[in-house]
Amino acid sequence: MSDAQTSGAQPAGLSAEDKKLVTLARATRARTGAAEGAAVRDSDGRTYAAATVDLPSLQVSALGVCVAMAVASGSGGLEAARCATWPARACRFTAATSGAT
After folding, report:
1. Are the C-beta atoms of residues 42 and 75 closer than 8 Å to each other?
2. Whole-number Å distance between alpha carbons of 83 and 45
3. For residue 11, is the peptide bond before it cis, meaning its omega torsion is within 30 degrees of 0?
4. How confident is the model at residue 35 (pLDDT cuts 50, 70, 90)?
5. What's this model's pTM, rounded to 2 decimal places?
6. pLDDT digits (tens, 9 = 90+) for 44-79
7. How far is CA 61 from the centre of its chain?
8. From 23's CA, which of 33, 84, 87, 96 has a CA 20 to 30 Å away?
9. Are 84 and 21 in contact (CB under 8 A)?
């Protein structure tokens, strides 16, 4: 991986908790060799990190895996999400609103 891919530089203006999410997303992406890594923090402060699932029979974005893990753990809501991709691009995410907070 190039220096740009593994750079520890953090985006400006993030809180310490959001920087943790960036670090988790980047580490997950780098560890798995996936094009996309993501991390989310739920309303209880728990964090979840995952990489893209890209199998012939199933494709799920890293962010989608994180959300599924949080829901499966009984999370009542999400506070923040961060994605790390290479090459840099926006993570795929479709949000649906519900009555849950």
Report:
1. yes
2. 18
3. no
4. confident
5. 0.75
6. 999 999 999 999 999 999 999 999 999 999 999 999
7. 9
8. 96
9. no
Peptide bond into 56 cis (omega under 30): no
Classified as helix, coil or strand, 87 is: coil
Largest CA distance in the chain: 44
Give which of 29, 11, 73, 13 is closest to 47, Cα–Cα: 73
**Residue in the block written with tokens 């798995």:** 32
In a domain, 71, yes or no: yes
What is the total count of domains within the chain? 1
How far is it, in rounded angstroms, from Cα 72 to Cα 69? Answer: 5
Cβ-in-10-Å burial (0-12, 13-18, 19+) of 82 comes to buried
Q: Cα separations (Å) of 83 from 10, 57, 74, 99?
A: 12, 24, 22, 25
